[in-house]
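Note to self: keep these together.
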Amino acid sequence: MRKRGDIRIGAIEEITVTGVDAKITDFAVTGNVPEDASAYYRFYKCKVHADSSLDLEYRVRIYITPELTGAETTKTTGKMTHGTTKEITFAAKPPDLGLTENKQYSVMYVYLDAKDPRTGDWVNLRSYSRSDTFKVEKKVTCWEKTPHYSNGCELLKHYANDQCEIGLVEFAKASSDYPSKITVAELDFVAKAYGGVGQDINTLCANCCTPAPKGRICEEHDIPSSAKAGTSINIGVCVENTGKIKADFWVDVKISGPDYSTTLTSAKKSIDAGKKDKIYVTWDLPLNLKSGTYTIDATLYA
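Structure:
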């Protein structure tokens, strides 16, 4: 210690300082993302380990090269209790980039910041040099070949129901096929056709799919309440076209009663979508038909 006049200059005590020991581990690419995406898709994740003694809020920043429009590059953790761990994920929703093929991107640096509780400023704690690569997959279109189908229309038809619709059930099937059977770009194309309660895929790809005929037997039949053996009667079965297109329908009418059974097949009848009509068969009652109650059942075909 040096002495100068009445002032003493020198160390009076030593203090041991413990730095903030928060860190990031488990860096990983979680998947590719589609071009012209309909939603955000996760592509990167890591784990933040909070300081062993301080409760702090952390921020993770990533640097992507080349720059990717629509990608998340900053995520905050909220205040973390000391000694805890939180997984951080990053997602992207790239616009139409005009890609002619898949394009590779890399997460080159990851930064861990903490918010100073005294000032509210973000302070960088650590920087990590990385080279974690993922791809933006070229968007799927209606009539160009996809990674697994001859074109986007065939992809949609594979998952659509017989009414050319992709609803919750159909989209769930496509989701379960990713990533083993379809790519994220193919999944996103199905998502674009998904309407929640069922959307016609022809809305996305015109003239892609023809709905199957669909109908039901309705209640407004034209059937006599009684008949005489040895006569002929007309039996009219009410049919409703519940599908999306005009279609031909026909019915098998089965008549059964005391010691008797027969099936009558009608001619085909064209019914417009959303309309009802009656399809007739003629029953020639045998002269020796027994008295009693006869049951009439109908089976509809399209």
